[in-house]
UniProtKB/TrEMBL annotation:
The keyword Nucleotide-binding applies. GO terms for molecular function: ATP binding; DNA binding. SUPFAM superfamilies: P-loop containing nucleoside triphosphate hydrolases, Ribosomal protein S5 domain 2-like. Signal peptide: none annotated. Keywords: ATP-binding, Nucleotide-binding. InterPro entries: AAA+_ATPase, CHLI-like, MCM_dom, Mg_chelat-rel, Mg_chelat-rel_C, Mg_chelatse_chII-like_cat_dom, P-loop_NTPase, Ribosomal_Su5_D2-typ_SF. This is Magnesium chelatase family protein. It comes from Pseudozobellia thermophila. Pfam families: ChlI, Mg_chelatase, Mg_chelatase_C. Residues 213-395 form the AAA+ ATPase domain. The keyword Heme does not apply. PANTHER family: COMPETENCE PROTEIN COMM, MAGNESIUM-CHELATASE SUBUNIT CHLI. Belongs to the Mg-chelatase subunits D/I family. ComM subfamily.
């Protein structure tokens, strides 16, 4: 008998329905065809054991399993459940009316329990689009699939439940979540809040500017100064994600199987990969492409702690995606694109020993060591970082104060207001939504200075020996400061503040 059951394959962040045709006939043999990878080829061992342990078996007949479309490469172990149900159904061991109305996926353990799958959300989106009635999958992935409306989502723990559902009509518990309600409820409760940070008012101000204009930022300070603590809190002051952004971000995390028992992500992601990270892990790739850290940070923050410690090649491969806001990975048979629009926060010690120009420092570095350390970050990547700020540790008395700082939700209100001004400003322009994205032409148009401000900037550039590349960055940042100030025009005050955030352009640093 021939039966069809349905599974799904994920490419990039989109899914394609896979038809599993199962034919059981007289004779002997077990043939799995249609470009399966090794994990799928091994599925027969898992299926055999899982069926035996639940009172069923792979019949001693000629079994042909075909995964279609045949030209699409299928990977992973998530077709175990699909194929197992197909075998039971085609060999007449269970009734299987309406089985073709479901997408059925899950990896089997030998006892028949189900292991999580990757990409449940894109699979559910595709299933709904193609008019499937339901999606049966491992329970841990049910919530992320249940984001999709108009699709019945059944999270199961063991193959026995799925068998009972089709064979005996025993109901499965449907996973229903109120996506909107959950989404909006969690918006005002950031995991990490700026109110936990004592003192550091000027740094918080700088991070507010970064958030308001979408400016990449580098924090320079000795160990223990609070750099990591501050960086972690940046997502909490960015404007709340829209439903659309949340869906995009959740999809990417779903594809790598990073979502467990959770629906739509409502908080912007914060990713902090270690400096030993490989190129592939950072930007994505691999034989079966997977998104990297820059895509897991999509719509959120990528924190590169101790920037000069990263391999140069790693920083190089990040340049293009940083510009394009997406990364494309090409393979012989296909190409996938992952979005990667993130804010970059970097940190560094002022010197390889951790300190700079500090007579009390426990370790000091020679000028040659300093030069080598700093040269690793100079150039193209640094060119994309608008704000440099020095973080000095807050004194002990400040740390022990009880007074709470301003909350992230309060700061976020000002950031959101400034973003709205920018949305209006760039209305109708394709590639620019906030100030940090302005190109040279747009800077000339939107960051006009009056005579006095021009003079101020010129003098400062000479006095502080600022490089030419600093000029455009100061203008962009000044535009954001003016937006936070609700000012139509950039004034001298705005310029003066923006100039302060160029520490690395000054002499003694990168020169
Ligand atoms: N301004 C601050 N307010 C409250 N705690 C702070 C502050 N600065 C540092 N800390 C404490 O010191 C710890 C170390 O800070 P961390 O962010 O890891 O420093 P860094 O990344 O610069 O080495 C933090 O976990 C936090 O408990
Ligand atoms: Mg740190």
């Amino acid at each position: 008998m021939l039966k069809k059951v349905y599974g799904s394959a994920v490419f990039g962040v989109e899914a394609t329905t896979i038809t599993c045709e199962v034919n059981v006939d007289t004779g002997v043999g077990y043939h799995l065809v249609g470009l399966p990878d090794n994990a799928i080829k091994e599925s027969n061992y898992r299926i055999a054991a899982a069926l035996l342990n639940n009172g069923y078996r792979i019949p001693g007949k000629k079994i042909t399993l075909n995964l279609a479309p045949a030209d699409l490469r299928k990977e992973g172990s998530a077709y175990d459940l699909t194929l197992a149900l197909g075998i039971l159904s085609a060999s007449g061991q269970i009734k299987s009316e309406n089985i073709e109305k479901y997408i059925i996926m899950g990896e089997l353990s030998l006892d028949g329990s189900l292991q999580p799958i990757k990409g449940a959300l894109p699979i559910a989106i595709k299933a709904q689009e193609e008019g499937f009635e339901g999606f049966i999958l491992p329970k841990v992935n049910a919530k992320e699939a249940a984001i999709v409306s108009d699709l019945k989502v059944y999270g199961v723990e063991n193959i026995s439940e799925v068998i009972a559902f089709f064979d005996k009509g025993q109901a499965l518990e449907q996973t229903i979540i109120d996506t909107r309600e959950e989404f909006y409820r969690s918006l005002d409760f950031p995991e990490f809040d700026f109110s936990d940070v004592k003192g550091q008012e000027s740094i918080k101000r700088c991070m507010e500017i970064a958030a308001a204009g979408g400016h990449n930022i580098i924090l320079i300070g000795p160990p223990g100064a609070g750099k990591t603590m501050l960086a972690k809190r940046l997502p909490s002051i960015l404007p709340p994600m829209t439903m659309h952004e949340a869906l995009e971000t959740t999809k990417i995390h779903s594809v790598v199987g990073k979502i467990k028992n959770m629906g739509l992500m409502s908080q912007r992601p914060f990713r902090a990969p270690h400096h030993t990270i490989s190129d592939v892990a950072l930007v994505g790739g691999g034989a079966y492409p997977q998104p990297g850290e820059i895509s897991l940070s999509h719509n959120g923050v990528l924190f590169l702690d101790e920037l000069p410690e990263f391999k140069r090649s790693v920083l190089e491969v990040m340049r293009q995606p940083l510009e394009d806001r997406e990364v494309t990975i090409s393979r012989a048979r296909f190409t996938v694109t992952y979005p990667s629009s993130f804010m970059l926060v970097a940190s560094m010690n002022p010197s390889p020993g951790g300190y700079f120009n500090d007579p009390d420092a426990p370790v000091t570095s020679s000028p040659a060591e300093m030069q080598r350390y700093l040269s690793k970050i100079s150039g193209p990547l640094l060119d994309r970082i608008d704000l440099h700020i020095e973080v000095t540790p807050v004194p002990f008395e400040k740390l022990s104060e009880d007074r709470k700082g301003e909350s992230s939700v309060e700061i976020r209100k000002r950031v959101t207001a400034a973003r709205e001004v920018q949305t209006k400003r760039f209305n109708g322009l394709d590639n620019v939504h906030y100030n940090a994205q302005m190109n040279t032409k747009q800077i000339r148009e939107f960051c006009k200075l009056d005579g006095a401000s021009k003079e101020l900037l010129k003098n400062a550039m000479e006095r502080l020996n600022l490089s030419a590349r600093a000029y455009d960055r100061i203008l962009k940042v000044a535009r954001t400061i003016a937006d936070l100030d609700k000012a139509a025009d950039i004034s001298g005050n705005h310029i003066a503040e923006a100039i302060q955030y160029r520490s690395l352009d000054r002499e003694g640093w990168l020169g």
